Amino acid sequence: MNPEKKTFYITTPIYYPSDKLHIGHTYCTVATDAMARYKRLTGYDVMFLTGTDEHGQKIEDKAREAGVSPKEFVDRIVEGPQGVKDLWKLMNISNDRFIRTTDDYHVSAIQKIFKAMYDNGDIYKGKYVGKYCKPCESFWTESQLKDGCCPDCGRPVVDAEEEAYFFRLSKYADKIQDLLENTDFLEPRSRVNEMVNNFIKPGLEDLCVSRTSFTWGVPVDFDPGHVVYVWVDALFNYMTALGFMNDKYDDYDKYWPADVHFVGKEIVRFHSIIWPAFCMSLGLPLPKKVFGHGWLLLDGGKMSKSKGNVVDPYVLAGRFGVDALRFFLLRTFPFGTDGNFSNELLIQTINTDLANDLGNLVSRTTAMVGKYFGEHLPEGSGATEDERGLADMIAQAKGNVELSMNFPEGDPLKFDAELVLQAAGLRDAYEEQMEQYAFQNALAEVFKLIGRANKYIDENKPWLLAKDESQKPRLAHVLYNLLECVRLSAVLLTPFMPATCEKIFAQIGADEGLRTWESAGQWGLLPTGAPVSKGENLFPRIDMEKELKALEELHAQAAAPAAEEEKAPEYITIDDFNKVHFVTAKILACEAVKKSKKLLCFTLDCGEGKPRQILSGIHEYYEPEELVGKTVVACTNLAPRKMMGLESNGMLISAVKEEPDGSEKLHLIMLDDKVPAGYGLC
What we know:
The structure is a single chain. This protein is an alpha+beta fold. Among the domains are: 342-521, Isoleucyl-tRNA Synthetase, Domain 1 (Orthogonal Bundle), CATH 1.10.730; 574-671, CATH 2.40.50.140. It has a 6-stranded parallel β-sheet, with helices on both faces. Strands 17, 18, 19, 20, 23 and 26 form a 6-stranded antiparallel β-sheet that branches. Strands 5-4-6-8 form a 4-stranded antiparallel β-sheet, with helices on one face. Helix 1 links the parallel strand 1 and strand 2 (45-52). The chain is elongated, with a radius of gyration of 31 Å.
């Protein structure tokens, strides 16, 4: 290995294997892979890390439900058929390392890290009292809740109280704020305001870093009963995978600090506030950048395993091809913002960019070379001195040049010059966008050349040139220029579609030396004697209507077993039923809760001799005035719960159904008003 090579360390988040991964996880990993491949292409010594975050209460609970140990559960999802590793292999992910937080070397390192922060006074023992969201594995204060629910996922939280260790996150609030506001540590810039205004300025609270209510985690070796909680375990993976506090690897000094962590915006808070604070606590260099990409939205909502609204990348890759899916994800959605996923958009992108533009260019060009000249273009058909000179001038000027080209109307040299002009400035324009993680824009630059090359075909009309023997030299030069456009495009598309570009290089006879970053900055390198063959149709056009119907059937089949499982009865005993106290209740008063769009506050007569207050999130279905005087059903032996600063003592019973369009309809269960308050349901 060349010791002079610059290093580049890039990571995905480590994914939570509570279920199989979906297209949202694939999006992040493909983006990371494209960046890693781009950096390797430009000459960097790259370390690309991905992996899985395998501890926590949710895993423990799901394993119990499945009747297996937590380790068996995560092994199935990570190592099993169509698991995480299989998915990354399918998607042609070029990661250098894969870390699992259950790996022995990581576990022992986390114990040392936890003890080091305890010894320096940044971790202390206390008691946690607050709200807990199990799906997100996050603790929240009352003020942080949104309509009484988790501000991240919108689901209900539960009261939590247990002995725990805390990290002095508040100690680092000023330093973190300075880091965010006065450096480019966090991108896109819009994420900075979210972090500072929503989390730091309201007051950064100390962080719970151990749990005693479950056992599936890294044991705190100096205090039995405690396990290291989530973020100490998860975030330090970026270091332990390099050999930090372990002897598994020895390249921490070589690659750390990380050049960039790619993460979804839902975990930006942990990576931009908690992670640098951990590093500061141990006096370690901070990662250079955290980039929080947007979500892929499905029907307007975030894809989520727990919500069930996911898209299976195995199905899409099987139908459309791996490279087509990789391309779509990075061509269609700006990396820093949310994007609305749909099968229609996927098919449209494939048909337009890959079938019509790229595929058509490669197919037409190689077919015409074969038809008019056989496998090889004639000698002397390559780039002219004028074209090379123009390309060199553009490359040296890095696009900062204005040219006056006074060609007669219809002069074919004008077409050549315009094509070379587009090609010569491509690599620099592409590089500028890639360095900003603007994958969509980088691909747009490549497709400007592809579009110009397709126009070049129409301008020169090779089929007419072929009919005139005296125009054969011109025909050969036109085809050579097209092959060079194909070559340059394929070099720069390699990070996005590696397998497809290998096929393109084979079709145009481009050897290894013509696939390099250096070669992408030069015009006219393809030898005229390179063997050209038409090969397979890279991207057949897709019948939109037919394919959408096929996809609908596939998804229906995939959902069928799950639906059957859901219908399987889960029996309870009469003793279980008798534990729940349902009574009839008269609504004495009802009003909307201030600053909440969902909550209504009910005052009820439950036959107890005094009014009972219950809060219910049904404002979108009912106005308060229409409910006063109605007789409803209430559960009265639920533990009291605070929402928006108000105490709710029970629950009103409703009937809910999901409509075909994904929306919900809710009806509050109402009884005949003749039924008195306080009657128990049996």
